[in-house]
Specification:
- Chain B: It comes from Vreelandella aquamarina.
- Chain B: This is Tripartite tricarboxylate transporter TctB family protein.
- Chain A: This is Tripartite tricarboxylate transporter permease.
- The complex is a heterodimer of chains A (520) and B (148).
- Chain A is mostly helical and 520 residues long.
- Chain A contains 22 helices and two strands.
- In chain A, strands 1-2 form a two-stranded antiparallel sheet.
- The longest helix of chain A has 35 residues.
- Chain A starts with 8 loop residues before the first helix and ends in a 17-residue tail after the last helix.
- Chain B folds into two domains: 54 residues; 64 residues, no CATH class.
- Chain B is 66% helix and 0% strand.
- Chain B is mainly alpha-helical and 148 residues long.
- Chain B is built from four helices and no strands.
- Classes of the chains: A mainly alpha (520), B mainly alpha (148).
- At the A-B interface, helix 9, helix 11, helix 18, helix 19 and helix 20 of A face helix 1, helix 2, helix 3 and helix 4 of B.
Chain lengths: 520, 148
């Protein structure tokens, strides 16, 4: 119980502060949990690992939860993971039951968060224990599997692969060190860049640039067109809320929480996938789903418990394999890098205290979120109206100063921030995806080391198939993800055709307006 | 025209260009052998596969055509220039002046220019970043042109 000594007053304050800021970020449309974590990443450098993680996990949980506020009140998901909350939340708000809807969401979120935290607590050490025996071959295949799953769950598999490969390349820039089996020379750059890029692009400014600056660039052009502040927020009167709404939702709550946790475990999948899946499952399996989409609490319950369950799920592969489960956990890797700690199978056994501190922070953040949102929802709802021109310079400045300060004042980090901010913006504009790119960037250099070392020791490609039964299982999973992507591709093409034919019918044009499937 | 040049086409083209650049660069590196790979092995391996995929995407792009992206050059340029100015000013002129420059240049990205409001915002941000980064986190950042 040594970790208890880390739980001082500042720990609780940081979790509380992180959760509150996270809720605010999540509640403002266009700002996501990922952005909140990226912007606050530099702050953790002075806090130390345990306190830094307390802040970041608070931001993560708060950010995912905050998305429900504009989803219910304005019909705009605050974060992509709250898309399905709009289906039932907004109709309820229009009936004057906004507050009731939000309270239902808050309770569902709490349950989802706690279920996934429990799964994380039980499952991550087991998985880490199992993967500790992996050789280079299996480690390489795990990364390959992660990348192929990410790619297959992107909008188009080819695009996902591109984005991932570009990320891997970006990670190869720099010197090819001898300890990795290289020759000590620099690669993939011109000679004049050598003084700056000898070690490659450093991870933190890349993360802050891609998730901070490029999101700002994307939002800045939207903000001109659609100003949310003009709309009036109706929260509704103190309508009768009682816990009896949850009577009979036990199956729904558990099912959605587990769906969320499981989807969170898949690498690179954004929150929208979890809540959409949970919502459609409830629609298919519930005895009475006729009211769903018209303001039924069951829709809110499935959507919000699933998206909060992501948090614990996404941390499982991160803490047991070193592979981030979504873009937010990819940014969390930055916090570990900042403290010089490598996440992987050895993380939990070697950093027992930190592991317990993280679990405590995660559970605590869920309760803080619950208390804040359940009792202060009226005040939180107002942040939806904060004008964006105040927020944007604030975030840009936090990003730039943070990137500058993070490695004790290296100006090249600011240029890295800018390069990746603009790059992130452009690639999203031409339809490439950020999540595979960043995960490719994070895992790329390790993948090369494992690839080279496995071939060095065995000298033939066939080793990737014959090393162990686990390798074969991993190959089967890779093949399954590819098949899944191709099948989904046909399905979505069919759906597109259907939508296209509906487009000519003017009565259907309003639907699907807000459902942009951007990655968070 | 827009049936040929669309998002997927651009993405495919971008991949081809990047693949070509990487391959060109990686050409100079030693391939090595399987047991003793040179530095050029993985870049070239990825380059060839990506070039192939890029070509496939471009071929199919006519089918999956989506609208050509519209860029908001104003926001892009203003925010980029703002960050550049901030980065250049921070060391010689200190955080205070750099922040003011950043806020004003970013403010230009909006249709309406509000000098007073931006000034107030810039001041608030200066105070905030002083509190967080210099007082709170003890980071080695110059505040005014004349400090340390």
């Amino acid at each position: 119980m040594e970790f208890l000594s880390f739980l001082d007053l500042s720990f609780f304050l940081l979790v509380g502060f992180g959760t509150l800021v996270g809720i605010i970020f999540g509640a403002i449309p266009g700002m996501t949990a990922t952005m909140a974590v990226a912007v606050c990443l530099p702050l953790t450098y002075a806090l130390g690992l345990n306190h830094g993680l307390a802040l970041l996990l608070g931001l993560y949980v708060g950010g995912i939860s905050g998305g429900m506020v504009p989803a219910v009140l304005l019909n705009i998901p605050g974060t992509p993971s709250s898309i399905t909350t709009t289906f039932d939340g907004y109709p309820m708000a229009q009936k004057g039951e906004g507050e009731k809807a939000l309270r239902i969401c808050v309770i569902a979120s709490l349950v989802g968060g706690l279920v996934s935290a429990a799964v994380l607590f039980l499952f991550a050490p087991l998985l880490a224990d199992f993967s500790i025996k992996f050789s280079y071959v299996e480690k390489f295949l795990i990364i390959l599997l992660a990348l192929s799953v990410i790619a297959s769950l992107s909008n188009s598999m080819l695009i996902g692969i591109f984005s991932g490969v570009i990320g891997v390349w970006l990670s190869l820039i720099g010197d090819y060190s001898i300890s990795d089996g290289g020759n000590g020379h620099t690669r993939l750059m011109f000679d004049f860049m050598e003084p700056y890029l000898f070690e490659g692009f450093s991870l933190l400014p890349v993360l802050i640039g891609i998730f901070g600056i490029s999101t700002i660039l994307l939002e800045a052009e939207k903000g001109v067109k659609r100003d949310v502040a003009g709309e009036r927020v109706k929260i509704g009167k103190e309508s009768a809320f009682s816990f009896s709404i949850f009577k009979g939702s036990f199956t729904n709550l558990t099912r959605s929480s587990f769906i969320g946790t499981f989807v969170g475990m898949l690498p690179g999948v954004g929150g929208s996938a979890a809540s959409v899946l949970a919502y459609t499952q409830e629609k298919n399996l519930a005895k009475d789903s006729s009211q769903m989409g018209k303001g039924a609490p069951q829709g809110l319950i499935s959507s919000e418990s699933a998206n909060n369950a992501l948090t614990g799920g996404a941390l499982i592969p991160l803490l047991s394999l070193g592979i981030p489960g979504d873009s937010t956990t990819a940014v969390l890797i930055g916090a570990f890098t900042l403290q010089g700690i490598q996440v992987g199978p050895l993380f939990i056994p070697e950093n027992h205290d930190t592991w317990y501190v993280m679990m405590t922070a995660l559970v605590l953040a869920n309760f803080v979120m619950f208390v804040l949102m359940f009792f202060a929802i009226k005040h939180i709802a107002k942040v939806v109206m904060v004008p964006k021109h105040i927020l944007y310079p604030l975030i840009v400045m936090m990003c730039v100063v943070g990137a500058y300060a993070i490695n004790y004042g290296i100006m090249f980090d600011v240029w890295t921030l800018l390069i990746f901010g603009v790059l992130g913006y452009l690639i999203q504009k031409i339809g490439l995806e950020v999540a595979p790119l960043i995960i490719g960037f994070i895992l790329g250099s390790q993948a090369e080391v494992y690839f080279v070392k496995s071939l060095e020791s065995f000298g033939t490609y066939s080793i990737f198939f014959t090393k162990s039964p686990i390798a074969l299982v991993l190959w089967a999973l890779i093949a399954a993800s590819v098949v899944f992507a191709i099948a989904m591709g046909f399905k979505s093409r069919a759906r597109q055709k259907m939508e296209l034919s509906q487009m000519h019918d003017p009565s259907h044009t309003a639907s699907g307006k807000h459902h942009d499937s951007r990655n968070d | 025209m827009h049936r040929i040049i669309n998002r997927d086409f651009l993405a495919g083209l971008l991949c081809l260009v990047i693949a070509a650049l990487v391959l060109l660069q990686a050409y100079a590196y030693d391939m090595g052998t399987l047991r003793n790979m040179g530095p050029g092995y993985l870049p070239r391996f990825l380059g060839i596969s990506l070039a192939g995929l890029g070509a496939i995407t471009m071929v199919f792009s006519a089918k999956t055509a989506t609208a050509f992206p519209v860029l908001n050059y104003r926001a892009l340029v203003c925010i980029t220039v703002g960050i550049i100015a901030f980065a250049l000013l921070m060391r010689p002129a200190g955080l205070f002046l750099a922040t003011i420059a950043l806020v004003y240049i970013c403010g230009l990205s909006e249709r309406r220019f509000r000098p007073v409001k931006l000034g107030a915002l810039a001041l608030a941000l200066c105070v905030m970043s002083y509190l967080i980064f210099i007082l709170g986190l003890n980071m080695p950042i110059r505040l005014f042109p004349w400090s340390f």
